[in-house]
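Re: Re: token formats

Sure, here are both.
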Amino acid sequence: MPDSPVLYVLNGPNLNLLGQREPEVYGRETLADVQARCERAAGKATVVFRQTNHEGELIDWVQEAAGKADALVLNPAGYGHTSVALLDALRTLTIPVVECHLSNPAARERFRHRSYVSAVAAGVVSGFGPLSYELAVQAALGLAQERSRTADRSV
């Protein structure tokens, strides 16, 4: 892993409305606030932070991360419950993936209890509001660092 690892933080649909949409569920911080938290938590790592409302664009970014990132934090939002295409894209990755949610999907509506992303994620951080992102960033970078150390020992 380079001195400055690259971390992709990708966000799915409606997260551009953070701070406005259902603040009782998602909180009052904006997506820009969440991005700042991620950048602080990442320390010297380079953070590529993106949000889209379009499934194909999210998949394009996952595929891009395969060649450019050391780890991926993904809040798939609603696509986590519906997108087999996103699952298929994530299966192509060899970097650590950490799934992240502001709310706790297991404590919400039944249809939110299943996540296709969880099937390929190293772990899931959910239910801590914006702190979920900070914890997910720390976990993803820690996994990437451990992966790098293991690769270095095998050479």
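Second one below.
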Amino acid sequence: MLFAGRMVVHQMMSTTDVHEEAERSGSRTLSSATRAFALIDAIAASGRAVRPPALAAELGWSRATLHQHLVTAVGAGWLEQTESGAYRLTMRVASIGRAAMDQAGLGRRVLPMMRELSDELREATFLAVLSGDSADITERVEPRRLIRADFNGESRWPLNISASGKVFCAFMDAAAFADLEARGIPLPSSSEIARVRVNGYAVSTTSDDDDETIAIAVAITDDRGECLAALGVLAPAERVDAENVAAALRATAERIHRTLHGARP
């Protein structure tokens, strides 16, 4: 499972395990590819950047073999080297995790609960995932009422000013946040991030003529408490109590969390 540049590995097969499994199934594996995946798994499992000596000891490889695979992985865009000489995953790995979530049908499992929430609040609800340097809307449910907030056809929101973007930044892995910062991506202030962490939700507002729209978002977490997606509400600001909406969002996010991990919603 992946969260914003950090892959969480629950179980890692050794290179020998992979070859033995392939032999039992009657298939052949490419040893170079197996080694490449083992390298990615080892760095992912560490949860931080890893120096080559530690990797060589973990994998049981020679320095020359490790160096060759590190250079290849960096050239392919999967790894990057820090100033200290350690290696870490790049944000490219995050896109693979998001694709896995899409293929696993996250949106389809979440939609029924989003519809219930939209009916309860009589406001529009949305589900967003982190996509590079923006929060991308993957699902949305419109309320059954005549006057409602309009998404204006937007499906990508910036991280620094959108409620979902603030949620991702507040609960993002430190290495991923540093990567975005180094690339010059506009991000929320440290005080705003601290506010989101304390409150457990983020708020953003936009104005169009005399109308003000408010977005409120909370995190949907995995089994390690890390953010998989943002669940939010979009509504005219004049009829929304942020605390009450946030409470309803948190309750639904908790139901989604339980559903994703095999419990009844």
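The mean pLDDT is 82. The chain is about 45% helix and 20% strand.
- S.
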